[in-house]
Design a protein that fits this description.
heterodimer; A: mainly alpha; 21 helices; 3% strand; B: mainly alpha; Helix Hairpins; two-stranded antiparallel sheet; 30 helices; 75% helix; flat
Chain lengths: 535, 787
């Protein structure tokens, strides 16, 4: 069994000389910079340039996907390591493995789609520039292998989103933007303390000051109790981002008041910063603390599933309903991740992608409905399936994916997270599974109130899905169906990394073994009743 | 012949191909081609099923199990699930009747859905349903079965709310899906438990190794799967969605909500029979009791429904209860046997009712039917065959399968048998009631209806009341005029008297004065005379008005009395034309006229041919498992490889079996005779004691009509405390959780404002603070120092 430290130093044979991961971050950043210098007399150009740069980034992310080697998915591939601040042991260190791969691809695809598909309502220059900065930041978070770099990117993403909500948002946008900013800043301030403490305490033990993720993860020298405190500071930052109950209240406000692109990216990408952080910087860096805190986090995740679903049921605003459904969905990711077994972790990663597709598409659909009806209040709509059957059909498909219908993407992720959680924390999984009942309730009830019933006169002539909108939704729909029918290529590419992460936890935590199937050893058909897995 | 088994994927692929083609081309194909496409896909699937059946039959008995794996679906660590099909006698039996009956219902739908604006979409959904249903039964692992399981639930949702513009249809669809999901929770947890204990949820592995499960685990899995089955197969307490599901088009009710989808729960339990075998004894006993009680409860409710489809819906719930009773009694073959016979006769009954509804302008109230036997000869003949089959009249199919279940129930527990027998009697009663009300007796469609009569009387009463009011107004006016005339008369009289006094007192010498007084008097007298005439006329007018008023009041009284009399005869009699009392045709609107001019006739051949085929099936499919000798147990022997020797065997002697059969036949006959006595005129006088509807009222209790208040109570709870608690949580979220956040924000702001004052900009005060701080630190260090 190779440990991660040894894996880390194996050169990946296909490593290209072109620093593609750096390019993934820098390309959108250059695009943003370029936008600032574009003359204002051609507002269309902003969008085109922004799309060009994000599409180039997307293309590179696809290239990374195709060049990614499944067999060595446990390793960080395409590694890019440059010394940054040598005296402090800070480096520009990037890498992608089976855990981050799909989030990078998701980011690479979602950004150009939202840029091309949604127009800036005003101030296009700054709007597209901020979107590109956001893309660079998100890419950075998913690629960084250095705690300092990670923290920088983690913080950078706040700024563009703050402005996107505050300047291009609707309703109480200033309140929502400030709330979003303060909440996440509050979380990450503690994480900064945690990062510094970790680096310096590690230096005290080993004599080396480093912010390198892999080195820190493999050293595991600091005291157990201290590590738990530091984990907690990380966990708080991630819990706000996820968000976990009871730190979720920024989310409905931010989602509801953000511009459509903001909501889509917030849901599809930015919420994953938290769950990804839990995997990469929580479990990997602090395996013992992660095991110790797992029951608490699974509890919060389970509460989130039920709580978010119930709150979603009672929302009057369709966008708010989708926002609360995110709280429930992210709960599944958390319980899967902290099941700390292959099924749970793979389900969690898969669910990150699934949630990005389903909820991203839902926000787009809500925006399309708003364009037509000028309202997001559910009770003010009704019967819209009559004038807009295709739009209704797509909405239903996405809603079904979101409520976890087998055959669509949401189910596979949800099932695996629950299965993993069941092996680790049986009763929580049993409770969490009732979330699928509630999901059916709030989504189908919303669907009924929006699309079924008699159509009001003012909507009778409403237009159906336009070609442009259809093209925008098509990648989401394809992803939803493909991942539901054939998730294997995705799961396959994450499995080595997930197994390595579990092995890492097993290696560093005494008395911990992967909570998995308590399989009855079957010798023949007449074996005894030993090996009861019952409660 | 083994190569025939390789056609298994075709069974599933054809409906899927049909669905995809209709999704892409449905609108372009239009009516009726979209329907034909869907039907051909189904027919092809049936042919493929039959080929696979032949292939399987040609295998040696012990080799009759074949797994066809297409691709790996979900691989995650130790968990691995394929998209693969398990071909064994059980799944092939299921596919045969699903595709066979499915094809007939598709054909029927071409006629039934004629002129519907969403005609292609209907067949698209039907094909998707067939695909899901076939995946459900053919899936080689629990997860794939679950995919089909939820897929059929989705199609059920889509088809119940097919006519979505009506809010009630939309609600019924949602209710079906959400209620099913409660059961799905059980299914999911069962999979978790099965996987974490056995390490696989592939049937071949799972079932071969079920014996190594601990009893407690096996019991838990059984009960969890039972929860799933209760949802899908509409058993107590989750049956409430099925009656509402009748909001969908009738072919949907026949295919999904009678013949196929709702039997999935039974299929699932039979599929995992080795797990049930390892369970504690109370688990199968629970299954049997759930089934028996559901069968009885639903049968009582069916007695009192007036909607033709609601009767059949509750009947379906009741018959599914029999299947659960069979499963719980270990009578797996009997359960499948009854599933098949039920699929035939219930599909037939639903399609028959659809034909009736189609011809009665979508009126579903049986009280409005009557005498349709002559108008719809094919439909009624077919329906009657279905009736005899479900009522348990030998030699029709239902008798054989039900009798077998009752025999097993007898050996399991006498009380279960009694409940089953009672249910059989009630089944005969409510089905006979349905047949008599619909096809026999008087043609009542053109009758005035109680609610119309009530309406007509209400109109009449309003009319006479208006007349009274008008005459009252006139009377009041006459009275005022009269008073005024009297006043004028009195004035004239006094004036005349005054003038005559004036004349008497006039100075006789003054001629001019006398002449003036005389003239005045004359004038006054003439005024008096005209006032007298006017007063007389006013009195006359007043009297006239009074008479009119009295007349109007009298008329009103008469109408009210007549209405009261009529009210007593408004109570519906299915035997006599309604007593209109003093009402006549003109009191009824155009609706009655429209009905009078409506002439139902037999449905088109596309609808009647499936009816004929199903009727033939309902009559004869009993031969697949006759009880007289083991050689005639074709179905039982065929299913053996799927049942792992877990099938219970009857131990009763031949005589006991014969006796049980005879009792069952007597019960069915009794039920039919009772219904005839109450609902057929020829037999009525014997029992009714001359009181119309006396016995009907005693059968159709309000308790039954309102479904034992179960659905109402659940709805009230969900709409009341349930919704309130959800609201309370949302309120808690916005006020307490978010309120805390905003509160913290407010405090920070206040604190910041306070702290701001510290920043005075005066070096002196800063120095002071530094000094204070230093002292505090110093004291703190001192206190920490150890000496």
């Amino acid at each position: 069994m190779l440990t991660l430290s040894s894996l880390d130093f194996i050169a990946v044979t296909s490593a290209p000389s072109f620093p593609v991961l750096s390019a993934l971050i820098i390309t959108p950043a250059i695009g943003a910079l370029l936008l600032l210098f574009l003359p204002n007399n051609h507002p269309d150009h902003f969008k085109q340039v922004a799309f060009l740069f994000s599409a180039a980034t997307g293309a590179m992310s696809i290239w990374v996907l195709t060049a990614f080697q499944t067999t060595s998915a446990a390793q960080f591939q395409f590694k890019d390591h440059q010394t940054w601040i040598e005296s402090l042991g800070i480096s520009w260190s990037l890498g992608v493995d089976g855990i981050s791969l799909w989030l990078v691809v998701l980011t690479g695809i979602i950004f150009p789609l939202t840029i091309i598909g949604i127009n800036a309502e005003h101030g296009p220059k700054a709007y597209y520039a901020w979107l590109l900065v956001l893309e660079a930041g998100c890419m950075g978070v998913f690629l960084a292998l250095d705690l300092f770099a990670f923290f920088t990117f983690f913080e950078i993403v706040l700024v563009p989103m703050y402005f996107l909500i505050g300047k291009w948002g609707h309703g109480q946008r200033a309140y929502a933007a400030t709330k979003f900013f303060i909440f996440t800043m509050f979380g990450s301030a503690l994480m900064l303390v945690g990062i510094l403490a970790l680096a310096f305490l590690n230096q005290a033990e080993t004599g080396v000051l480093t912010f390198d993720l892999v080195e820190l993860a493999n050293s595991q020298e600091i005291a157990k109790s201290t590590a738990r405190w530091i984990f907690l500071s990380f966990a708080l930052a991630f819990a706000v981002k996820v968000p976990l109950f009871p730190l979720h209240t920024w989310l409905p406000d931010a989602h509801t008041n953000a511009p459509t692109a903001g909501s889509v990216i917030l849901a599809a990408i930015m919420l994953k910063l938290g769950t990804y952080g839990f995997l990469r910087f929580g479990i990997f860096l602090f395996p013992e603390a992660a095991v110790w805190f797992a029951p608490a986090l699974v509890t919060l995740g389970t509460i989130g599933i039920i709580y978010g679903a119930i709150a979603a049921t009672m929302q009057r605003d369709l966008k708010r309903l989708v926002a609360y459904s995110s709280v429930a969905h992210l709960g599944f990711i958390v319980i899967g991740a902290f099941a700390l077994n292959t099924e749970g972790l793979e389900g969690a990663i898969l669910q990150m992608v699934n949630h990005g597709l389903s909820t991203g598409a839902l926000f787009l659909l809500v925006a399309m409905l708003y364009d037509r009806s000028q309202t997001r209040i559910i009770s003010e709509m009704g019967g819209l399936q009559k004038p807009a059957p295709v739009l209704a059909g797509v909405f239903l498909l996405v809603a079904l994916s979101s409520l976890g219908l087998p055959g669509l993407n949401g189910f596979v992720g949800e099932f695996l997270t629950l299965l993993g959680a069941f092996a680790a924390h049986r009763w929580w999984a049993v409770v969490a599974a009732t979330g699928v009942i509630l999901a059916a309730l709030y989504l189908l009830w919303a669907y009924q109130r929006v699309f079924h019933g008699a159509v009001a006169e003012r909507y009778a002539q409403m237009s159906d899905l336009k070609l442009r909108e259809g093209l925008l939704l098509a990648p989401f729909v394809v992803g939803i169906i493909f991942l539901g029918v054939y998730p294997k290529p995705v799961i396959e590419r994450m499995e080595p990394a997930v197994d390595a992460l579990i092995a890492h936890v097993e290696l560093h935590v005494e008395n911990f073994s992967e909570p998995t199937a308590n399989v009855v050893v079957v010798e023949s058909n007449q074996t005894s009743n030993e090996g009861d897995g019952g409660p | 012949m083994r190569s025939l088994l390789d056609f298994a994927w075709v069974i599933v692929a054809l409906p899927l191909a049909g669905f995809v083609s209709l999704l892409l081309l449905g609108r372009r194909l239009g009516e009726p081609r979209a329907g034909w496409l869907g039907s051909i896909a189904m027919a092809g699937s049936f042919v493929a099923s039959f080929l696979v059946f032949l292939g399987l039959q040609n295998q040696a008995v012990e080799d009759r199990r074949f797994v066809q794996t297409l691709f790996e679906w979900v691989p995650a660590g130790d968990f691995s699930v394929d998209v693969g099909f398990l071909v064994d006698p059980l799944s092939v039996t299921m596919t045969l009747f699903i595709t066979g009956i499915g094809t007939l219902i598709h054909l029927y739908s071409i006629g039934y859905m004629h002129n519907d604006s969403d005609f292609p979409k209907f067949f698209m959904y039907l094909n998707l349903f067939a695909f899901s249903m076939l995946v459900l039964v053919l899936g080689d692992n629990m997860l794939l079965t679950f995919l089909g399981w939820e897929g059929v639930g989705l199609c059920s949702y889509l088809l119940i709310s097919f006519w979505f513009s009506d809010e009630r249809n939309a609600s019924a669809g949602k209710k079906a899906f959400v209620t099913n999901r409660i059961g799905d929770w059980g299914f999911m947890v069962a999979m978790f438990l099965a996987f974490t204990t056995l390490g696989s949820i592939q049937y071949t592995y799972l079932l071969d190794n079920a014996g190594s499960l601990a009893q407690s685990t096996a019991t838990a899995i059984t009960v969890l799967l039972l929860i799933g089955a209760i949802g899908k197969s509409a058993q107590i307490p989750l049956f409430v969605w099925l009656p509402d599901a009748m909001a969908g088009p009738t072919p949907v009710s026949a295919l999904i909500h009678a013949a196929t989808m709702v039997t999935s729960g039974v299929y699932l339990l039979i599929r995992v029979n080795p797990i049930i075998a390892v369970s504690a004894q109370w688990a199968p006993t629970l299954i049997a009791w759930v089934g028996a009680l559901t069968a009885l409860l639903a049968a009582t409710i069916a007695l009192a429904q007036n909607d033709i489809k609601k009767v059949l819906a509750y009947s379906t719930v009741s018959q599914l209860g029999y299947m659960f009773l069979a499963v719980g009694s270990g009578a797996y073959v009997a359960a499948i046997f009854h599933m098949i016979t039920h699929a035939f006769f219930k599909a037939l009954l639903f399609l028959g009712s659809g034909s009736v509804i189609h011809q009665m302008n979508n009126d579903q109230d049986m009280r409005h039917y009557g005498g349709l036997r002559k108008l719809l000869p094919v439909t009624s003949t077919a329906f009657i065959v279905g009736w005899l089959a479900i009522a348990g009249v030998p030699p029709f199919s239902g008798f054989w399968s039900k009798d077998e279940i009752l025999a097993f129930a007898w050996e399991t527990n006498v009380i279960l048998w009694l409940i089953g027998l009672l249910t059989a009697i009630l089944t005969a009663v409510y089905m006979s009631r349905q047949v008599f009300l619909t096809f026999f007796g008087r043609y009542r469609y053109a009758d005035t209806r109680p609610e119309e009569i009530t309406q007509a009387w209400a109109t009449r009463i309003a009319e006479v009341a208006a007349a009274v009011e008008t005459s009252q107004t006139q009377l009041d006016a006459a009275e005022v005029a009269n008073t005024k005339a009297t006043e004028r008369l009195v004035t004239a009289q006094s004036k005349s008297a005054m003038r005559s006094v004036e004349l008497e007192q006039a100075d006789t010498t003054d001629e001019r004065a006398v002449a003036r007084a005389t003239k005045n008097l004359e004038r006054a007298q003439s005024t008096l005379a005209s006032a007298e005439t006017a007063a007389a006329a006013a009195i006359e007018a007043y009297a006239q008005a009074q008479r009119m008023f009295m007349a109007a009041q009298g008329a009103q009284e008469q109408v009210l009395l007549a209405a009261q009399d009529a009210k007593q005869s408004v109570a519906p009699s299915i035997f006599d034309t309604p007593d209109l009392g003093e009402l006549d045709e003109t009191d009824f609107g155009t609706a009655l006229q429209t009905r009078r001019e409506h002439h139902p006739h037999e449905s088109p051949w596309l609808m009647t041919v499936p009816l004929i085929v199903l009727a033939a099936g309902s009559a004869i499919v009993g031969i697949m498992n006759l009880p007289f000798s083991s050689d005639l147990h074709f179905l039982g022997h065929w299913l053996e490889p799927s049942l792992y020797n877990n099938e219970a065997h009857l131990t009763s002697s031949g005589a006991v079996k014969w006796a049980l059969g005879i009792v069952a036949v007597l019960g069915a006959t009794g039920g039919i005779v009772l219904a005839a006595a109450v609902y057929l005129r020829a037999a009525r006088r014997v029992v009714d004691g001359g009181r119309v509807g006396y016995w009907a009222e005693r059968i159709e209790l309000p308790l039954f009509a309102r479904g034992w208040f179960i659905d109402e109570s659940i709805t009230d709870f969900m709409g009341g405390p349930g919704k309130q608690s959800f609201k309370a949580l949302a309120h808690f979220d916005s006020k307490v959780v978010d309120g805390t956040v905003n509160g913290v924000g407010r405090w920070v702001r206040l604190g910041g404002n306070a702290l701001r004052r510290v920043q005075t900009g005066l070096v002196r005060s800063y120095a002071l603070m530094v000094a204070v701080g230093a002292v505090v630190l110093f004291v703190w260090f001192l206190s920490r120092a150890s000496w």
